[in-house]
Design a protein that fits this description.
Helices cover 50% and strands 15% of the residues. The protein is of the alpha/beta class. The protein binds BIS(adenosine)-5'-pentaphosphate and zinc ion. Its EC number is 2.7.4.3.
């Protein structure tokens, strides 16, 4: 099964993707994570996209489509979770082509609905483990021991450079302008499954499980 998690910054895409990986053995393809990895490893592409990401703007379609192409080609038995991709109509068309080329299909698009006020709170309180990728929040999901990851024991906890109110404003504008048209695009294809992302994490996970069947 291949699915897209579609939603604004902070909607909980990464959080739910990690659960689907654990529960269903699917492979998470987060273009945000791939781009951050490219930055950390200092590749030429990583250097080029750094300022764009920190400002909250979208990087070019060509770059992200290239990243996804490689991964789909490698294949996955449990299927893919596309997290943060596609984000433009051009990316959505490219994904359809790539899936066809690799003899597979898209099964569902989970649209995670969360209002802007909640998104600001989620983004400004978020931190992640730099070693295992576990996602935390100052208020709703702090680590049990301050400064130490519950999952892997690492003390390498980080905040993202684009998780500030200024960049978030741009990220939201980019979402409404370039990504939200995908809601209508997938609705017209009959693939859209809207989910109330404002509930607590377990309740959102249950609604997604129901939607996927
Ligand atoms: P990306 O990394 O994809 O960021 P994003 O879409 O802005 O999404 P986030 O990772 O911020 O949020 P999320 O929905 O995963 O929420 P999370 O689960 O962490 O992209 C970053 C940048 O890369 C882009 O701005 C762009 O520059 C570039 N980029 C990436 N993909 C691209 C593409 N395809 N095309 C062009 N450019 C691209 O949760 C957030 C917080 O809320 C956490 O603290 C979590 O603990 C908490 N939380 C989660 N669920 C709940 C809940 N149900 N209740 C309460 N708290 C919750
Ligand atoms: Zn960890």
């Amino acid at each position: 099964m291949n699915i897209i998690l579609l939603g604004p910054p902070g909607a909980g895409k990464g959080t739910q993707a990690r659960r689907l990986v654990e529960e269903r053995g699917m492979v998470q393809l987060s273009t945000g994570d791939m781009l951050r990895e490219a930055r950390t490893s200092g590749t030429e592409m990583g250097k080029r996209v750094a300022a764009v990401m920190d400002a909250g703007e979208l990087v070019t379609d060509e770059i992200v489509i290239g990243l996804i192409d490689e991964k789909i080609h490698a294949g996955s038995e449990g299927g893919f979770i596309f997290d943060g991709f596609p984000r433009t109509l051009a990316q959505a068309d490219a994904l359809a082509e790539l899936l066809t080329k690799n003899y597979t299909t898209l099964d569902a698009v989970v649209e995670m609905r969360v209002d802007d006020q909640a998104l600001v709170k989620r983004i400004t309180g978020r931190y992640t483990c730099g070693d295992c990728g576990e996602v935390y929040h100052d208020d709703t999901k702090p680590t049990k021991v301050e400064g130490t990851c519950d999952t892997c024991g690492s003390t390498n906890l980080k905040r993202r450079a684009d998780d500030n109110e200024e960049s978030l404003k741009t990220r939201l504008m980019e979402y409404y302008k370039k990504t939200s048209p995908l809601i209508g695009y997938y609705y017209a294809k009959g693939d859209l499954k809207p989910v109330n992302g404002l509930q607590e994490v377990d309740a959102v996970a249950r609604e997604i499980a129901q939607a996927l069947g």
